[in-house]
Automatic annotation (TrEMBL):
Quaternary state and interactors: Homotetramer.
UniProt keyword Acetylation, yes or no: yes
Residues the entry annotates as binding substrate: S68, N117, E161, N168, Y192, Y244, V262
EC primary class: hydrolase
First and last residues shown, out of full length: 2 to 312 of 593
MF term (GO), any: glutaminase activity
Protein name, as recorded: Glutaminase
Catalytic activity of the protein: L-glutamine + H2O = L-glutamate + NH4(+)
Enzyme Commission number: 3.5.1.2
Keyword Acetylation: yes
Family: Belongs to the glutaminase family.
UniProt KW keywords: Acetylation, Hydrolase
Length: 311
């Protein structure tokens, strides 16, 4: 371990990349045609520090959709727009133990947390329209502040999410029925589907993760993406709920706040230090990138990422 950490960062990352590039387990998401047609091979690893160093290896500039990695950032914007008490009243913070798309609520009638679809759709419904009156556009803009560049929606993925999103639509209407959403559920669903369909690169995701690590300050642009005081709330739910049904396994093995998406991205945050992103589209049974999980396990060992660092 000590040997690898004395290597220059990029040399070290290149070695990790080489180690796991032969890993071909898992399969690309196939619930919509554009994801099913994705090339399974691209593989990128990117680390960005809070002082703005960027280390990128492999396919760090290949585009893919952010999918559920949008959830912590949607939650952050909902918190910024509505304040903690209102958001807490409407969305819980307990791990669910159910699949990310489960149609369920907690005993108080709220979505269990903002990292599953129900909580993310409720959070999407709390995002303000701002000047344009369009909350989806405002959320896309906000994701761009986190990433340090203007991001765009992949319209083909968005159309497919809209067309096939019956389960999410069911969740939206359930939320409306219990009062977790006001107004037309389609409005929140539009925001949610658009957020999932935003096109990013591994490098973008690492900058977004580094912005969380820097308590909301983008290390490349200096722009503030979210008020400092809200970052703890976001990182806490990522810690307990960010990796779908493998959140417990992740916490034991890796031990840092994280979020994955079915597009093949995974982000991890070392508060005060750095953000990491891995991109590789083949997913395991719970929906996490196989190489992504493998790389983070390796980095956690070599770089001692785990928050309980007992040596
Ligand atoms: N668009 C997907 C859905 O809502 C995103 C899920 C994900 O990345 N887990 O089902």
């Amino acid at each position: 371990d000590q040997v690898t950490t004395t290597l220059p960062v990029e040399t070290y990352l290149r070695r990790v990349h080489r180690t796991f590039s032969g890993l071909k387990d898992g399969a690309v998401a196939d619930y919509i045609p554009p994801l099913a047609a994705a090339d399974p091979e691209p593989f990128g690893i990117c680390v960005v520090t809070v002082d703005g160093q960027v280390y990128a290896v492999g396919d760090s500039d290949a585009p893919f959709t952010i999918q559920s990695i949008s959830k912590p950032f949607t939650y952050a914007l909902a918190l910024a727009d509505r304040g903690l008490p209102e958001v807490r009243r409407r969305i819980g913070v307990e791990p669910s133990g159910d699949a990310f798309n489960s149609i369920s609520l907690d005993s108080a009638g709220r979505p269990r947390n903002p990292m599953i679809n129900a909580g993310a759709i409720a959070a999407a419904g709390l995002v303000d329209g701002g000047e344009s009156g369009d909350p989806a556009e405002r959320l896309v803009e906000s994701l761009g502040v986190w990433a340090g560049r203007r991001l765009e929606v992949d319209e083909e993925v968005f159309a497919a999410e809209q067309e096939t999103g019956h389960r999410n639509r069911a969740i939206g209407h359930m939320l409306r029925a219990v009062g977790s959403l006001d107004g037309d559920p389609e409005r929140a669903l539009d925001v949610y589907f658009r957020a999932c369909s935003v096109e990013v690169t591994c490098r973008d995701l690492a900058v977004m993760a580094a912005t969380l690590a820097g308590r909301g300050l983008n290390p490349l642009t200096g722009a503030r993406a979210v008020p400092d005081a809200l970052v703890t709330q976001v990182l806490s739910v990522m810690t307990t709920c960010g990796m779908y049904d493998a959140a417990g396994e992740w916490l034991v093995n890796v031990g840092i706040p994280a979020k994955s998406g079915v597009g093949g991205g995974v982000i991890g945050v070392m508060p005060g230090q750095l953000g990491v992103a891995v991109f590789s589209p083949r997913l395991d049974a719970v929906g996490n990138s196989v190489r992504g999980v493998a790389v983070f396990n390796q980095l956690a060992r070599d770089l001692r990422l785990h928050f309980v660092n007992t040596g």
